[in-house]
Specification:
With about 280 residues, the chain is mainly beta. About 20% of the residues are buried. The strands form 4 sheets. The chain has a 5-stranded mixed beta sheet, with no helix packed on it. A 4-stranded antiparallel beta sheet has the order 9-11-14-13, with no helix packed on it. Strands 10-16-15-12 form a 4-stranded mixed beta sheet, with no helix packed on it. It is flat. It has 2 domains: about 100 residues, Immunoglobulins (Immunoglobulin-like, Sandwich), CATH 2.60.40.10; about 110 residues, Immunoglobulins (Immunoglobulin-like, Sandwich). It contains 1 helix and 16 strands.
């Protein structure tokens, strides 16, 4: 049996009319929603408003490096280690490198050229002379200052752990102030910390030659000896006299019988009398 709730016939007719109107309204709403973007675009075009491209907060750097970190880890002993940094102008404007600023002057980075058109590149090296540094981990940096229409800066890093068994130079550099013609003498000591097997006595480091790039600096080789803990040492005696006026940069070059340490270098800076004193007799 079907229950009869006795709804009035007018109520049923009204409900059917509302359902029929709702069925006719939905297609119209869908058409309006589809046409709305087109109508809005016509309004925007008519008003002359144009969309603007999104601009980045920071312009792209023009100087790109193949690698920003060179990590040599713990390499075998030798006199010198190099980190190569190759770069390219990846921008659309010429750039000029104004300066390389290493964290240590001993790294001695150099550039053959400083101006690079778009697509051009170059390279420089960071150089670590193991005999002039303490053993253990080291991290060096080099800031690259350049301009591609506005001043910019990039930074590269060089990491290395220098071996304990090594040849060491002390001091690692020489700075001399020489304002008269009295000779100044400085010693450079080379110590061999490498373990030398008893059956290979010829493996002990011997200094074969010592010279200076400044021709008025005299360099002589001292006798080999052993320190208090049995490490072999040998001195190089540097004598400086009659220094020309001004500042002079050079190197003490030490050649040895060990392939890994065939050439050792000690940076030398000598400050002589000022150029105004050139014609003044020195005492």
């Amino acid at each position: 049996m079907v229950a009869d709730f006795g709804w009035p016939e007018s109520w049923e007719t009204s409900r059917m009319d509302a359902s029929d109107q709702q069925g006719r309204w939905w297609p119209r709403a869908l058409w309006v929603a589809a046409l709305l973007p087109f109508v809005l675009s016509l309004v925007v075009h008519a008003s002359g408003v144009k969309a603007r491209p999104v601009e980045s907060d920071t312009a792209r750097d023009s100087l790109g490096f193949e690698q920003y970190l060179v990590n040599l880890g713990s390499p075998p002993p030798r006199s010198e280690y190099l980190a190569r940094f190759a770069f390219r102008n990846v921008g659309s404007q010429p750039l000029k490198i104004s300066e390389l600023k290493p964290s240590c002057g001993c790294l001695n980075p150099r550039l053959d050229r400083k101006e690079f058109a778009p697509g051009e590149g170059g390279e420089f090296f960071l150089r670590v002379r193991a005999a002039n540094e303490k053993p253990g981990p080291h991290e060096y940096t080099c800031r690259v200052l350049y301009d591609d229409g506005q001043p910019r800066e990039a930074e590269v890093r060089f990491k290395i752990s220098l071996p304990e068994e090594r040849v060491e130079i002390r001091p690692r550099s020489l700075i001399v102030y020489q304002f008269n013609n009295q000779p100044t003498t400085k010693d450079v000591t080379i110590t061999d910390f490498r373990a030398t097997p008893e059956d290979r006595p010829l493996a002990r480091l011997e200094i074969l030659e010592a010279t200076c790039t400044l021709d008025w600096v005299e360099v002589t080789i001292g006798e080999a000896q052993f320190d208090e803990i049995g490490q072999r040492q040998q001195k190089v005696i540097v004598t400086i006299t009659d220094v020309p006026p001004g500042r002079h940069d050079g190197s003490i070059i030490i050649r040895t019988n060990i392939l890994e340490y065939a050439e050792l270098r000690v940076p030398l800076q000598v400050d002589g009398p000022s150029p105004s004193d050139e014609h003044t007799p020195r005492k």
